[in-house]
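Need the bound structure for 6-O-phosphono-beta-D-fructofuranose, inputs here:
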Amino acid sequence: MKKCRRIAILTGGGDCPGINAVIRAVTKKAILQYGMEVIGIEDGYHGVIHNRFRKLEYNDVSGILTLGGTILGTSNTANPYHYPSKKNRKIEFNDVSVTAIANITNLGIECLVCVGGDGTLSIANGLSKDGVPLIGVPKTIDNDLRGTDITFGFDSAVSIATEGIDRLHSTAMSHHRVMIVELMGRNAGWIALHAGVAGGGDIILIPEIPYDVEIIAEKVRERNRRGKRFSIVVVAEGAKPKGGDIVIQRIVKESSDPIRLGGIGFVLGVQIEKMTGIETRTVVMGHLQRGGSPTPFDRVLATRLGTRAVDMIENREFGYMVGVKGESLVKVPLEDVAKGPRTIPLDDPLIEAARSVDTCFGD
Ligand code: F6P
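Answer from helper R.:
Posting the output first, comments after.
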């Protein structure tokens, strides 16, 4: 079996805590255990298209385990199959995948490790089908990737969001207010559900369970009647009312997935204050959830995933993502990962547990 001598790694999509831990794991193991040469591609698929890369030596990745973000840079607009460029102030999209693939071949890259979420790994699936030897590593704070129980970055985001909710409790209690905290997650409510339960949110609103604002208002009034003169509402950015729609913060025209969610917390704040007469304030956690150092859990997970990816390269197991199933790491075909995001099943035991401690989901 021909051994891989030169591999490359790129990080795509939104950054998150733990990416550098994966870069470190892949690079150190590839160099130390298998004598491979490692190339770091800059700014996700932009670097592949424009030949922006640098060699990664042991010392380049030493000391980055705890560092947030990605030393390679990232992009959530660079899709080689739908690549944006500006012409006469208008954005047009072209398929530049032939150039991207030629650049990978000319660089002598025998396997490309793509660290990313569903956008990055769907593109990886396309490149793999077009003949690029490739392995995916699951990364996103949203935890919405198919084929894995968990992605690295999620635990860190939940931990940051939980700290935010904890801090809102004391101020909500002191001022007898409703505090709404809006969390990320796109069209999946994993962060809101887990941080909401961990932070003892009274009302948790997730995209998977459309809400009725009257039920939310009644929950706030009922708490007041019981002497609880404050309430904490944890809302996922993708939550929507029954029969209603998501709130869009901005459209990123250059992106293949242009919708950026945000603002539902403010819409709800106005409604709840009007319906209950209780002062209501909204806090948006936003990109704070993606910043800073990874939790110990994410450092461990990133190290496990990165080192396993290198074993898969050595065994030439291309076209797969390394995923987590229970306690084990598994190989998941990239085409299964590319089938679309993984939302929370309505029978998720955590929803049931939350309901049984009187958490309202607005339904
Ligand atoms: O996918 C990660 C994520 O942080 C989502 O939770 C959020 O909707 C989106 O990225 C925000 O993207 P951007 O960084 O482009 O605002």
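Comments: The mean pLDDT is 97. The two ends are 57 Å apart (CA to CA).
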